[in-house]
Write a structure and sequence with these properties.
The complex is a heterodimer. Chain A contains 14 helices and 15 strands. In chain A, helix 4 runs parallel beside helix 5, helix 7 crosses helix 8 and helix 10 runs parallel beside helix 11. About 7% of the residues of chain A have low confidence. Chain A starts with a helix and ends with a strand. In chain A, the strands form three sheets. Chain A has a seven-stranded mixed β-sheet, with helices on one face. Chain A has a five-stranded parallel β-sheet with strand order 2-1-3-4-5, with helices on both faces. Chain A has a three-stranded antiparallel β-sheet with strand order 11-12-13. By secondary structure, chain B is an all-alpha fold. A two-stranded antiparallel ribbon of chain B has the order 1-2. In chain B, helix 5 packs antiparallel against helix 8 and helix 10 crosses helix 11. The chains are: A alpha/beta, B mainly alpha. Chains A and B meet through helix 9, helix 10 and helix 11 of A and helix 1, strand 1, helix 8, helix 9 and helix 10 of B.
Chain lengths: 391, 300
């Protein structure tokens, strides 16, 4: 009995602690007005770049390169005289990729008067933190949160990202199918798996949202089945003038081989599960002309080399996950402040959407939803037994 | 109507392959009442042997048709050797053991052979050359039935007729039927039962090997795992037709192939397996021993 009383007391104490905490947080809310008022010419003070993400815990390897990138960018900007005369200062907050810590980190950054935020790293944590930034009119840019609704729901006009979202491949594939190839009736096939069906589902959604083409077949195949001739007949019977396939290369190579054997020469468009040399080795001649989306090659970008050199100058080894996305995001944010001439929220957002910035991931600006235009995936086509980027 | 015939032939192709493999299950079950779960792997090994031979012969510049024939023959020899050895080392020592022991042994052999081929070859998919010759007279119907479909259907039909004749009219066939009916009685009247069982495994494995080469050439790729799903489907076909019955395995294979094909064509390929296995359940409810199977006589 005594023990349970003790336990109850402990629980109550903890509860009070929590309540105390959240009340404290609420007092931060008025900071919102301050941030807007602070939109004075930046030349007088300093720019505070908040960096939030997993800096400790098991996912720290995803978050720490972001801090590194932000430091390198800030150092470069400060060495060149700062932004409109103001020096950039970095403020890091750890969220361990946990949503509950992310809200704390966000409150902390807001109360410490960060002007812009680079982060968070994980989609869940980002989603938890975004409403707080939104209330405080803070721009937040993630190098790594790929969850599609973060931008597409339209709930967070203050959110931007320098990485392509999970559905960007599908968007690229459908745009390519409808605009470049001019397909009108499209059959979508997938392998019923999370990845393949997800891709196929987004492709279906995008085609149906437009009016240029329609989906006349949406079906899953069984991975490992003895043959796919019935599905191939169905594609043919449906009168589709193109196939979009979501899944991996073993099934794709079977389907394409059977399509070509039946002399159905319609375009075949797939995802980065198929953009693999094994696919070409297995499908052989049938693979010729197949389209597949794949991650864009950024190593040729001039800023990529600059960022890499900066990193190598002070570190050993490789930069780590999302380093270049984070470097790009820091650059885009600081450049936007420079273009805006102040830390005013609306001006920064306007600059992000309208001014192109040269970054390691390419020359980017952001669309109305917050995704970086020109980042992410390219379309490749098999030519003479190799994937070649379609320009 | 064209669409119907396309699906019909696509189902016939698939069903012929199922039937070829199912014959091995059904014959072995008919003779020693064992479900040889390693049979799918024999089919896979046949395909791999076919690939090796085809690769060597292609580099010597043989024409497609002769490569197909030689590759199939090599596959038959190899698969037959595997089937024979399998029975010798995994099932014969367990012949008087409880029925569960050889079954477990069969599953073990299946896993062993899969991993053996995976380590010896590769776990990746490998491209298989198309060995089907082009038939000029088929060009007119090429949208309905491809040349490799045609080849599969014809070869499977020939193999099945040959098997039926073999069982009906040869001494060995007679011995097999006698052993299937009653092993002890057959032994008493002088049938060499061990030999009959070995021949059963050899014949079943040969059929599966031909199926393996045909399907590999048809879909153009193989890996160490193809035997598993094909084996399960063929086993289903054998049960559907009545396990132990040779015509039943053929019928079961074709029915399963058509079910899958028409279901894909008229409903959705999402439900291919759902329909195939629903059919199995329904038939087993009304005919517990399968379509052409004989209900075992229970002696009290």
């Amino acid at each position: 009995m005594k023990r349970s009383l003790l336990a109850l007391a402990c629980v109550m104490m903890l509860t009070i602690g929590l309540v105390g905490c959240s009340e404290e947080k609420k007092t931060d809310a008025p900071a919102k007005q301050e941030t807007s008022e602070k939109a004075a010419p930046a030349s007088t003070g300093k720019i505070i770049l908040g960096v939030a993400g997993a800096h400790s815990g098991d996912l720290a390897s995803y978050g720490l390169p972001t801090v590194e990138a932000a430091k390198l960018v800030a150092a470069a900007v400060n060495a060149a005289g700062g932004i409109n005369g103001a020096q950039v200062e970095i403020l890091t907050e750890d969220d361990q990729c946990k949503p509950e810590f992310a809200t704390n980190a966000a409150f902390k950054l807001v109360s410490d008067k960060a002007n812009i935020v680079l982060g968070h790293i994980c989609s869940g944590a980002t989603k938890a933190a975004l409403p707080i930034y939104k209330e405080s009119n803070l721009v937040c840019m993630s190098p790594s949160a790929t969850n599609p609704p973060l931008t597409q729901s339209g709930d967070y006009p203050n959110f931007f990202r320098t990485i392509a979202s999970d559905d960007a491949q599908a968007a690229l594939a459908t745009d390519f199918a409808m605009d470049t190839l001019g397909l009108k009736t499209i059959a979508i096939i997938h392998d019923k798996g999370d990845y393949g069906k997800g891709f196929a589902g987004f492709a279906k959604k995008y085609i149906e949202e437009g009016t240029k083409a329609k989906v006349i077949l949406f079906e899953g195949v069984t991975p490992g089945a003895v043959d796919y001739s019935a599905v191939v007949q169905k594609i043919k019977g449906s009168g589709a003038d193109g196939v979009i396939y979501g899944g991996y290369h073993p099934e794709a190579s079977k389907i394409i081989t059977q399509l070509r054997k039946k002399k159905i020469m319609i375009p075949f468009i797939s995802d980065d599960g198929v953009k693999d040399q094994t696919f070409i080795n297995v499908a052989g001649k049938s693979a010729e002309g197949v389209y597949a989306t794949g991650p864009r090659d950024i190593t040729a970008n001039p800023m990529y080399k600059v960022a890499m050199e900066q990193f190598k100058a002070s570190h050993d080894g490789e930069p780590g996950a999302f380093f270049f996305e984070a470097y790009s995001a820091a650059q885009a944010l600081l450049k936007a402040v420079e273009h805006a001439g102040s830390t005013d929220y609306d001006k920064i957002v306007y600059a992000l959407r309208n001014e192109e910035v040269e970054t390691p991931v390419g020359k980017i600006k952001f669309d109305s939803k917050g995704d970086a235009i020109g980042v992410g995936f390219s379309m490749y086509q098999v030519k003479d037994g190799k994937y070649v980027e379609v320009k | 109507m064209d669409y119907f015939w396309e699906l019909f032939f696509s189902g016939l192709t698939r069903g012929s392959i199922y039937a070829l493999i199912a014959l091995g299950y059904t014959m072995v079950y008919g003779i020693i009442e064992l479900i040889n779960f390693a049979h799918g792997e024999i089919y896979m090994i046949g395909a791999f042997v076919g690939l090796t031979v085809a690769g060597v012969l292609t580099s010597f510049g043989f024409p497609a048709m002769s490569i197909m024939v030689l590759a199939s023959m090599a596959a038959i020899v190899y698969a037959a050797a595997y089937g024979y050895t399998l029975e010798k080392i995994a099932y014969r020592p367990l012949r008087s053991a409880p029925r569960l022991s050889p079954l477990i042994s069969a599953i073990g052999m299946s896993i062993f052979l899969q991993n053996y081929v995976m380590l010896a070859q590769t776990s990746d998919f490998i491209s298989f050359p198309s060995l089907t010759p082009e038939f000029a007279f088929l060009d007119k119907y090429s949208s309905t039935i491809g040349t490799s479909d045609f080849l599969i259907i014809v070869v499977a039909a020939i193999m099945m007729v040959a098997l039926t004749l073999f069982i009906k009219f040869t001494r060995m066939g007679k011995a097999m039927r006698a052993t299937a009916q009653n092993r002890k009685m057959a032994m008493l009247v002088g049938v060499n039962v061990d030999q009959v069982i070995s021949v059963t495994f050899i014949v079943g494995s040969s059929l599966a090997a031909v199926g393996g080469v045909l399907i590999a050439s048809h879909i153009g790729q193989i890996n160490f795992f193809i035997g598993f799903i094909a084996g399960i489907k063929a086993f289903t076909a054998a049960v559907l037709g009545g396990i132990g019955s040779v015509p039943g395995a053929m019928l079961g294979g074709l029915i399963l192939g058509w079910t899958e094909s028409f279901c894909t064509g008229y409903v959705s390929s999402d439900y291919e397996d759902v329909f195939a296995f629903a059919l199995l359940v329904i038939i087993l409810i009304f005919r517990p021993s399968g379509l052409l199977g004989k209900a075992p006589i229970q002696k009290v």
